[in-house]
Amino acid sequence: MNNEVHLKTWNAYQRAWGPVDETEREELLRASVSEDILYTDPSSQTRGLQELFARIGQSQQKFTGAYFKNDSFLEHHDQALFLWTMYDAEDRVFVKGSSFGHFGADGRLVQATGFFEVPTKRP
Q1: For residue 31, what is the enclosing H or E element?
Q2: Residue 104 burial (CB < 10 Å; 0-12/13-18/19+)?
């Protein structure tokens, strides 16, 4: 797989974290993560697509309308490092962070780990 394929997968995964309806979120996740995805961030850890789906829903409830944009993408050996910015619903910078992703043989994420300061409230 090349960078473009992994980046496309990552972008679908990131869109799933944004303000989309549940049907689209599930489609995006099924296309971008394995059924047993391991997701970790400073405040949570989930295993499996359904737990991740619920975690993302909680995030959107707490920070309605928040979404991500990539600032940088580095990749080798089916692993990638992403630097990103999270924006609030009014397009203001909310959080800056980085994520590590490990891609499986089918090109979907088997692991995603986020590193960032946990936001305590809306900006």
Answers
A1: helix 22-32
A2: middle
Closest CA to 31 of 89, 118, 108, 103: 108
Contact 111, 102 (CB under 8 A): yes
Per-residue pLDDT of the chain (123 residues; tens, 9 = 90+): 458 999 999 999 999 999 999 999 999 999 999 999 999 999 999 999 999 999 999 999 999 999 999 999 999 999 999 999 999 999 999 899 999 999 999 999 999 999 998 776 655
Q: Three-state SS for 99?
A: strand
Domains and CATH numbers, the chain: 3-116 (3.10.450.50)
pTM: 0.92
Phi, psi of 77 (to 5 degrees): 45, 45
Helices (H), 34-85: 49-62
